[in-house]
């Protein structure tokens, strides 16, 4: 099986996999030292003088031999583990080198495209062009929110050309990660999610979540570290709760995608009335109406999933969109996960209705997409290849670090066990552990 760019891809060795070997097989790590130890131990426990001893001495000899063999077996097992991790590390190093080369080749190919020509303005309304800027401004208005602090930190990190460990795993704020063609629909979906969710910080992994907030030994928030520490340093104390969504812990959409769709929309089954027909006025599913930047369509999460099948499916699920309240209410028999209508109707879930107007609508909504993305044939597939190859490279780097840690630990344990065996052979009978009783008692099995 080959990955993108002709890179051979197979699952790396499982570090936790059980080893399959003969207990007496030769250790590859330190053959000369081990052979020396094994030869000396056998000479000691099988010498003619000791064989001629009485029954008590004979039992002692057998106990020494048993413990010596156990130490040797342990040493051999550790040696095989060392060899196992060395082979894994060698394979992963070669794989990462190949992936590095593939990423470079793919990026050179992508660089030949003129991205500026991919976008065509769909509407002439100048307010739509400023929509994204307004979304950022409205986030920053909530100056003591986690979203505003994270955004300020990202701006500062970029301005200082430095890597902040606090934000390296942060993808963005919910309100900035999707766009909609229709300003009214954007407002309605923002109202459906609510201000707290629109301001939620989105992280790739749980490690990224933990980096944002640090606790002291008493379990209290340490205001000098994490996001709280940065907030205090810029005079914007972070006192209120804020949501953080971890993509690693979200169960992604498990179904199919619409075939040959560059936006990777989900192949969700249309609602059906008892008579088998699709309800009148049904416009589609909210999760598929969100426009997502191309670089977030593939391998955004640690597990290789994009934002549509993780974040937005988690937020909207099968939320249905209808033309009017009347259409939505007529479709009640087939609404299970909520619905909204373009004239302001809203059903949170089956049996839960949001009534009234929206005069006090939240001040934050998704940006309105004023441009149509129209890339040439083959571009999206090439960009997907780069994204997936980078994701594989990132996973391979993590596997290499894990294998190196396991190898270091195995080598340490090997050396420790080797010294234990050498000390035992040097000191003789007095070093037999207490679990091997001298004289009476049964032999260790």
UniProtKB/TrEMBL annotation:
<protein>
    <submittedName>
        <fullName>Protein DEFECTIVE IN MERISTEM SILENCING 3-like</fullName>
    </submittedName>
</protein>
